[in-house]
Amino acid sequence: MKKGLILFFILLFVALAFGPANAARDKDTMVIVQGVDPTTLDPMDHLETPALNLCLNVYDTLLQRDADIKIEPLLAESYKLVNDLTWEFKLRKGIKFHNGEDFNAAAVKFNLERLGDPKNKLKQVFLVGVLDRVDIVDNYTVRVITQKPYPILDAQLCVYGGMIAPKYLQEKGPQHLAINPVGTGPYKFVRWIKDDHILMEANPNYWKGVPKIKKVIWRPIPEATTRVAALQTQEADIITNIPPHLMKLMDWKGRSFVSKTPSVRVIFMRFDTTKGGPVADKRVRQAVAYGINMEAIVKKVLDGNGVLLGQPLTEKHFGYDPSLKPYPYNPEKAKKLLAEAGYAKGFDFVLNSPSGRYLNDKEVAEAAVGDLRKIGINATVRTHEWGSYMAMQYDLKLHPANLLGWGNTTFDADWTLSPLMRTGQRLSNYSNPKLDTLIDQGSTIMDQKKRQKIYADAVKLIHEEVPWAWAYQQIDIYGVNERVNWKARMDERLEVFNMSFKK
Description:
Elements: H1 2-15, E1 29-34, H2 49-58, E2 63-65, E3 71-73, E4 76-83, E5 86-91, H3 105-116, E6 131-138, E7 141-146, H4 153-156, H5 166-172, H6 174-177, E8 187-193, E9 197-202, E10 215-220, H7 224-232, E11 238-239, H8 247-250, E12 256-271, H9 282-291, H10 294-300, E13 306-309, H11 331-340, E14 348-354, H12 361-374, E15 378-384, H13 386-394, E16 401-407, H14 414-421, H15 433-442, H16 448-465, E17 468-481, E18 484-485, E19 500-501
Parallel strand pairs: 1-10, 1-11, 14-15, 14-16
Antiparallel strand pairs: 2-3, 4-5, 5-7, 6-7, 8-9, 9-10, 11-17, 12-16, 12-17, 13-17, 18-19
Helix pairs in contact: 1-7, 9-11, 14-15, 15-16
């Protein structure tokens, strides 16, 4: 009890620094706190949930997943697969972009062809090499023609492909759009003060109806105790990534509560095998896997808020193989493998990590490094600010290893394996021709039984080759102001349109 009171007063003291001087808050304003600021508000030029959560409130996609994760139409009224290469989308009529432009077939063609053009060098590349063209059938019907069968197009369009006002982008350019977004969504962008707050206001002409919440302030607070303090003092309405040891402070009747759910986000430590060095040797990678006691780390550092995995997928993902188990902790075997690889005396090793992006991310990295020192590896942690960290990820400058989280909300193996392990992909620092073949086959076959077999083979190969030392499914922990009607989703979406204040 005494410790709890001490911690409470510490949090209240920390909260004094939180007061949103530059972002006026009133009873009609929702304040959402994430660990980091987004890197962009261009809905096509990121692969990160902090940016996605803001973008999905400004932009609409053609399709979406409901609370039960079932695919349903959004800007599209309906859709169908005409043949293995052709998807047809019927669009809703009478929808306007925030600047008054019409949403129609021409807008869809513009946006999807922007995604598919490699010259644009966008972060979202799932249509590059896949999209052939978009045909306009009439003003509210389009046909998306692919170069090869692409079985997860609908799943991708539930997450990516937020519709941008075409004329606005053409006139202002992508750099302007990245900090001044214009979509068809429930909220209009007002301002962005970098690393302080982003303000949005309800779109009174939103096609689904006027949002219940009038204004939304998004704030980045990397320090977990400061996020918790913001909720304690009711300066925040929703905070992400609560450290497990602070959960009890959030269950405060009449003030706040915890909303917790297993996520489809997988947190992992991956090797950069493309630049040589010790980690290019499979035996070294296996030694690292055996040398880290992840069961203890999940128990002690995360208070059990993680599910260890023997593969890069959760049981909710298509392609998951329940037969694969995590590498057990076996330091003696790890030492033996290091000796066989010629590193009996160890080697210098850096594990790069963000701080504040994922639940206790830095602490997980530090615990893993502590275990590696016990088997003779001279391991250290190097932490980075989130924006710089993602820039280094895209430039593949986090050798020899880094901690990352991947929230695959397509719920399909392809969107984990293709971007993260396919040779030459933007976020891949691993290369294996056999795995490349399996990934390519899985992404171009419409038969789901055949695809399942392909991915079973792929994840078995990954388990053997160890491009990732370990992986676990994150348990998402949110703190929620008692005045808010909302509960956590497994795909981490923060859709303010579906939130409300209690009366």
